[in-house]
Write a structure and sequence with these properties.
single chain, globular, 438 residues, 51% helix, alpha/beta
Length: 438
């Protein structure tokens, strides 16, 4: 039996048993958390480690749904993609689960999405793309499926050669909500975000979406806008996602575990440190356009996700909806896994500018911001040296930059990577390389 069929049957057995237990509860009533805890022992006895892992994740996703931390859309999508189980085949179970849901999670918003769209604030979605027409189609469709009516999508194509233009014309050419821009030369995602935002990003709220990511909760825009309206001090609202591992086909929930509202000073100062994680790309981040303009986004040289978040946090607080709103693909071609030396230095220069802005415009302590900068330099360069650096020259370039701009980080890096650099130096000698390859 194929692995996928084994997984489908294992998932279906668990769901069938769950449906039976809901319809015939044990004495003393039925508590949803108790209900799911019964299955942990059963799942732990599964002989196939891969199936066991997926069943444990399934229990977690159902629990998130019962606690209103995942929508019905998200649950149905997960079951379809991970277990090949369609909602129509388990409709009775889904109806029973819906009756067990608590009111602990972020509630659905009272926005009247059936109203005249012009009466609601506009969301402008900017999608940068390059030679990923299949992914792009899914990304655009995921936005069009949002129940929020006042939205506009701008796709900026960085001179693709895979038929992206034809696909966009066939699939979305007649949809006035979709604008297609095409570069004559490759300019990179940062420049394209800035160009599309300047040309068409006139909505009150902005979403920057990568072409390989997509939303699955159709009510997410509505909930995010309602959240913004309740809390005008927010610079952006974000949510949780599924991580989709393309090589294995696995979906795993990823939770930010942030407070409903995180004050800007705390998040900015501790960004990407313990307790203050960065959301997955900008997949779920609905930014207030005014905040982006105040933080000078149109003059940024490095318009990547971390820089946008950091600058936005100089302007306003962060909102968090504890729900699984989208899917972030991990497929080995994400830019995180292919960092170039020039990209890295541009990223560090942007953080140097952000440090100066925090001190000069927003009154942050110079000593604290210098420490913040040293920490960011060390983390960024050490990640690069561990994962992307390939030659002795890569190490020396990073050392040279850090010795000039962050001597403290430079000292830390030299101590940590002394052995790795020595190995790179030795490998430059052909005789030693030949010996090591014997």
């Amino acid at each position: 039996m194929a692995q996928s069929e084994e997984l489908r049957q294992a998932g279906y057995r668990l769901l069938t048993q769950l449906d039976d237990d809901i319809q015939q509860p044990q004495a003393g009533g039925l508590q949803n958390t108790d209900l799911l805890s019964r299955y942990r022992a059963t799942v732990s006895s599964e002989a196939n480690a891969g199936i066991q892992q997926n069943l444990e994740t399934l229990i977690g996703v159902i629990r998130a749904y019962l606690l209103e931390r995942a929508s019905e859309d998200a649950l149905e999508y997960y079951l379809s993609q991970q277990f090949n189980i369609e909602a129509t085949n388990i409709r009775e179970l889904l109806n029973n689960l819906a009756e067990l849901r608590t009111a602990d999670g972020e509630q659905a918003n009272p926005l009247n999405t059936a109203a005249d769209p012009s009466t609601l604030p506009k969301i402008s979605v900017i999608i940068t793309t390059y030679n990923r027409k299949e992914f792009l189609h899914q990304a655009v469709q995921s936005i069009l499926r949002q129940d929020y009516p006042h939205k506009e999508i701008t796709v900026i194509d960085d001179c693709s050669s895979d038929g992206t233009a034809d696909m966009m014309s066939r699939s979305f050419g007649d949809d006035p909500r979709v604008i297609y821009m095409q570069n004559e030369t490759n300019r990179g995602p940062g420049n394209n975000r800035r160009k599309a935002l300047s040309a068409h990003g006139d909505g009150e709220y902005i979403l920057f979406l990568d072409d390989d990511d997509y939303l699955i909760d159709r009510s997410y825009f509505s909930r995010a806008v309602h959240f913004h309206q309740q809390h005008p001090e927010l610079a952006f609202v974000a949510a949780n996602v599924f991580l989709e591992y393309s090589t294995t086909g696995q979906f795993k929930p990823s939770s930010l575990e942030l407070s409903r509202i995180t004050p800007k000073e705390a998040y900015f100062s501790n960004f990407e440190q313990k307790g203050y994680p960065k959301p997955a790309s900008t997949l779920t981040a609905i930014f207030k356009r005014d905040a982006l303009m105040k933080m000078d986004i149109l003059n940024m040289s490095m318009v990547n996700d971390a820089s946008i978040y950091l600058r936005a946090l100089l302007i306003g607080d962060a909102g968090f909806i504890d729900t699984l709103a989208g899917v972030y693909r991990i497929h080995g071609n994400n830019i995180t896994f292919h960092l170039s030396q020039s990209f890295l230095i541009e990223n560090l220069e942007e953080k140097r500018l952000i440090r100066n802005m925090a001190i000069e415009r927003y009154g942050y302590s110079k000593a604290e911001m210098n420490e913040w900068f040293n920490h960011n330099v060390y983390d960024t360069i050490s990640y690069y040296l561990m994962n992307s650096a390939k030659s002795h020259t890569d190490f020396k370039s990073m050392y040279n930059w850090s010795s000039i701009h962050s001597p403290k980080a430079y000292s830390q890096l030299k101590r940590q990577f002394r052995t790795r650099l020595l190995k790179k130096q030795l490998l430059r000698v052909s005789f030693v390389r030949a010996l090591l390859n014997r």
